[in-house]
Write a structure and sequence with these properties.
CATH architecture of one domain: Beta Complex
Largest sheet: 22 strands, antiparallel, barrel
CATH topology of one domain: Ferric Hydroxamate Uptake Protein, Chain A, domain 1
Number of helices: 16
Number of strands: 45
Structural class: mainly beta
Length: about 1000
């Protein structure tokens, strides 16, 4: 039913678009419109219906200038960047931090996001022509892959709260993609790129056609796009081939190894099920597939080579829009978009990731050497007699009185299965339509509605199943399993490469799927205009906007039994079903009041203000809902023509999203490099040892506990239907300079300050660990902050089987506090040199602070200029971009410079142990001295040549990372897995090296 509705709605838009191409007027208009060049935006007719709307205000007034700073990425810059999607376009904005994009592999959910101020992608709002579009998941975040980049005229980026104008979620700002309204002509672009190493091929093709119809009463446009990107593997770059431990500076990796790692071995009492640990095998050991012996643990598994720096994806987009003047005063408008995106993440092989298994001493694949070692330890410790051991070797099953098993925590990388691949296939549809018109000369109305759906299917391939590993190890012959389960093939974990045969893999592996569905329905109506009231010192009347809005969000996750049960080896825990919805009714009003105009020292003084009241209804039993009020006030003062001063104050809110409200409590993975219970520390500190034991570590593990495998610990977390909206107070003030003595020059400088209280957050791993371990005393072993942390009952580690190891505990609360402030500076200069035109553009940011406090008792953590597991995506102190373009008659030469300030390892995290500072063995692919405690400032240069071959044909070529600068190396486990990968931060620093892009653009 849903897809049927989508097809009908999309068809209605495309039929209106097609109507233009069925009329003779199209060809004549394209040939005779003198106001614009072919395939460009035709100037709108001088009708009030086409009055300019400023991002950040609902008032329709062509003379309106916003009091909040707005940065603009224009069509020319979009053309020079040659970006394949909108995320790449926004990633380099100074002051923003990298969101999820093509450089995120492990942690990429198949979407691309923007994070304007490092406050989270869920705290900025993404709009298309001032309207919300359907989000991609439970977090309510828009997937930037769905933006029709070929039709974007400009991208407005507004800083600070905008909830009064657009409703909740716009706490840190708004990104508004503005499309070309009256497109006339045909526009086709094909672009292809490749790295200097010959990988990472990118292809983008767009075709757009539009024109007027019905004697210029209407316009329609249709745009179709295709993008394809191939992977770049970390194994294909020397600096990322080996996983380098950030604290030891040596080749490292995962404890889920090949050959198999065995953590602790004990003999199981067949009558009681009790496990007696064998002291000879305390800690880590590894199978030697050559000798069959159980040796001291030697080598973790290098997972880097199969991971990717650039995720492969395919995208197909279609966008149609039309508007038609029904009468001189009434216009119908509509648009529809459809996008199909396929994003693949590729990570190292699946396997038994620290699961507890029982293995018969009569297992057919248990080597004699290993059997003899286990028996010797069991006999020496008095657990078994020599005769019992000998008899157990030939026991046929549990009914045999001689049957014995040993228990161990198994880490076996199933290299025979190949990489784990998650294929995220998204189908997104969003339709919008409305009517607007005039009521006389001073009032204008607009009523519109939208409906969108997003369906994403995650196809999970290449995973082994924990339950089947356990099942297939309980065997006493090579043909059948003791369980008698159909299809069960006993598995050999004791051999070398290929010991897990295709027949064994067929039983161990199974594909899985997770389906995420979201929808957004919205209705909006407003009345705008001016009133016959003016200030005694002003000429223009007061403008206003009033109206109402309704929105309803739904979202659900449906997992198959394998994903839901957490049975997938190395999937990071279960993916439970989620189903939630909420709706909101809103009323709003805004005014723009000129106070003083055309007076000495007051060319203009203007007041802008607004208020919005919202009432939320949560689809949860017992939830009473809640109401919120947001408001804003701002001033524009232009003392003389050359200078404008502006400032605004906004009280904004963010309502909890469906993930935060409805996700059940579940054990997943987080990042933690250092465990206070690891190593020898608990053996010399009785209070610390008591805490480790109180958290579930067995006594036999004390002194042998490892830090979390691959820097990933378990955490039990989830949503909370009792959450309330978070509140934000933000202000900006700044100046705009356009001096007449320097024609072509403009400068804007703005300070911003955003503070969020009652923030909906989960404490950082450092805060959760620190709440227990920062001040260990005799009473700590009974402190809830300590005992709520639960360890693997076999190994004592904070990672392991999610069914037995909850790990850290951090549920979502309203106790957080966030704050950031800084300065944005933009400068532009244009000068005609006679033989050419020079354009200089500079955009810079200084971020003073970005602090997060998870609860009143938590550390007020600073992340600007720092990196660690507590600070996810990097936010430098200083960042800027600068473009220099020299435009000759037929050729544009353009150099783009991106600067990223130096970074340091977070001081609070460094208290747990310093990052590596020393020489690295060249056998790892790296040589020389490396200091992982700091990252030097980085500068990247891109050079573009754009050539007008004819009036209708344009060629553009770009060399990215002109100097082939390598990314900084800090190891793989110093930060969050999402952004710290391949020994660097690939979303912030270029991991691909020099690459080339060429595009051909035809317009007529």
């Amino acid at each position: 039913m849903a897809y049927s509705i989508r097809r009908q709605l999309l068809a209605s838009t495309l039929m209106v678009s097609a109507a233009a191409f069925a009329t003779p007027a199209f060809a004549q208009d394209a040939a005779t419109t003198p106001q614009s060049s072919p395939a460009t935006a035709t100037p709108a007719a001088p009708s009030d219906n086409n009055a300019i709307v400023v991002t950040g205000s609902l008032i329709r007034n062509p003379n309106l200038t916003g009091v909040a700073p707005v940065s603009v990425i224009g069509a020319n810059e979009i053309s020079l960047r040659q970006s394949t999607n909108a995320e790449e376009l926004l990633r380099d904005i100074p002051g923003a931090v990298a969101g999820i994009g093509s450089q995120v592999n492990n942690g990429n959910g198949g979407v691309s996001t923007v994070d304007l101020r490092g406050l989270g992608a869920n705290r900025n709002l993404v709009l298309l022509d001032g309207q919300r579009i359907v989000p991609a998941g439970l977090d309510g975040v828009v997937d930037l892959n769905n933006i029709p980049l070929a039709l974007i005229e400009r991208t407005d980026v507004l800083t600070g709260g905008a909830s009064t104008t657009y409703g909740a979620d716009a706490i840190s700002g708004v990104v508004n993609f503005v499309t070309r309204r009256d497109f006339s002509g045909v526009d086709a672009t094909v672009s292809e790129g490749i790295t200097q190493r010959g990988d990472g091929n990118q292809l983008r093709a767009d075709f757009t056609v539009g024109g007027n119809f019905a004697d210029d009463k209407g316009n329609a446009v249709l745009s179709i796009g295709y993008q394809r990107t191939k992977p770049v593997y970390q194994g294909d770059r020397g600096y990322s081939y080996y996983a380098i431990d950030s604290f030891a500076g040596e080749a490292s990796g995962s404890g889920t190894t090949f050959p198999s790692r065995l953590v602790g071995i004990g003999i199981v009492n067949q009558a009681t099920g009790a496990n007696t640990a064998l002291t000879d095998f305390a800690g880590n050991h590894q199978i030697n597939p050559t000798t069959g012996s159980i040796d001291a643990y030697t080598q973790p598994y290098n997972f880097n080579p199969l991971n990717v720096f650039q995720t492969p994806y395919k995208r197909f987009n279609i966008y149609g829009a039309a508007h038609y003047d029904i009468t001189d005063n009434i216009e119908f408008y509509t648009r529809g978009l459809y996008s199909k995106n396929t994003v693949n993440t590729v990570i190292a092989e699946s396997g038994a990731f620290g699961i507890a298994v029982d293995v018969p001493l009569s297992n057919p694949y248990l080597p004699d050497a290993a059997f003899n070692q286990i028996c010797a330890a069991a006999v020496g410790q008095g657990v078994l007699t020599s005769a019992q051991c000998t008899a157990a070797r030939t026991a046929t099953g549990p009914n045999d009185p001689n049957y014995q098993t040993f228990r161990t925590t198994l880490g076996r990388r199933a290299i025979e299965a190949g990489p784990r691949i998650s294929s995220f296939v998204s189908n997104v549809f969003d339709y919008h339509a409305g009517l607007k018109g005039d009521l006389g000369d001073h009032l204008h109305w607009d009523v519109n509605g939208s409906y969108g759906e997003s369906d994403q299917t995650q196809l999970i391939k290449g995973y082994t199943l924990n339950s089947r590993f356990k099942d297939a190890l309980l065997a006493t012959n090579p043909d059948t399993c003791l369980s008698g389960n159909a299809g069960c093939v006993p598995v050999n974990i004791f051999g070398g490469d290929g010991s897990i045969t295709p027949e064994m893999l067929s039983y161990l592996t199974a594909n899985s799927s997770v389906v995420t569905h979201t929808s957004l329905a919205q209705v909006h109506g407003q009345l705008t205009g001016d009133v016959p009231v003016t200030s005694p010192l002003a000429d223009d009347p007061i403008n206003f906007a009033v109206g109402g809005e309704y929105r309803r969000y739904t979202a659900s996750v449906s997992s198959d039994s394998l994903a839901k049960g957490g049975d997938l080896g190395g999937a990071g825990g279960a993916t439970p079903d989620v189903n939630g919805a909420y709706s909101v009714y809103e009323g709003f009003g805004e005014i723009d009041a000129p106070l003083i105009q055309n007076k000495p020292y007051f060319d203009m003084l203007e007041l802008q203000a607004g208020i919005r009241r919202s009432q939320y209804s949560i689809n949860a039993p017992g939830s009473p809902g809640y109401g919120t009020t947001t408001w804003k006030v701002g001033l524009n003062w232009q003392p003389v023509h050359d200078i404008k001063l502006r400032g605004n104050y906004q009280h904004a809110v963010r309502a909890p999203n469906i993930n935060e409200l409805f996700s059940p409590v579940n054990t997943v993975l987080t990042n933690l490099s250092v465990d206070p219970c690891a190593g020898a520390a608990p053996t010399t500190n009785t209070n610390l040892q008591a805490v480790c034991l109180a958290q579930g570590a067995p006594l036999s593990s004390i002194g042998l506990i490892n830090n979390p495998t691959a820097g990933q610990a378990n955490i039990t977390t989830g949503g909370n239907t009792n959450l309330k909206p978070e509140k934000s107070n933000s202000y900006t003030f700044g100046t705009v300079l356009q001096p007449r003595f320097l024609p072509g020059f403009s400068l804007t400088v703005d300070y911003y300050h955003i503070k969020i209280k009652d923030a909906i957050t989960v404490a950082t791993p450092g805060d959760l660990v620190g709440a227990c371990f920062n001040n260990i005393t005799a009473a700590s072993a009974t402190d809830p902050a300590c005992t709520i942390i639960r360890r693997d009952p076999n190994t004592g580690q904070l990672d392991g089987d999610s069914s037995t190891t909850p790990g850290l505990y951090g549920v979502t609360t309203n106790q957080g506090q966030l704050k950031t402030d800084g300065i944005d500076l933009t400068a532009n200069y244009t000068r005609n040199l006679g033989f050419a035109k020079l354009n200089l553009n500079f955009s810079g940011n200084w971020t003073n602070s970005s602090k997060f406090k998870a609860s009143p008792a938590s550390v007020n953590r600073e992340c600007v200029g720092y990196y660690s597991v507590n600070c996810a995506s990097l936010q430098p102190k200083f960042s800027w971009t600068q473009r220099t373009t020299l435009s000759l008659e037929k050729v544009d030469l353009s150099l783009f410079w991106r600067h990223i300030d130096g970074m340091k390892y977070e001081p609070l995290a460094a208290l747990d142990g310093p990052a590596f500072d020393g020489d690295i063995d060249p056998a790892t692919g790296l040589s020389g001295h490396y200091n992982f405690n700091r990252i030097k400032a980085a500068n990247y240069f891109d050079f573009t040549v754009r050539f007008d071959v004819t009036d209708n044909f344009e060629l553009t070529a770009t060399v990215y990372n002109l100097a082939d600068k390598k990314p900084p190396i800090v190891g793989y486990n110093i930060g969050s897995t999402t952004f710290n990968s391949g020994n660097t931060y690939p979303s912030t620093y270029d991991p691909l090296g020099r690459r080339f892009q060429v595009s051909a653009h035809v317009k007529f």
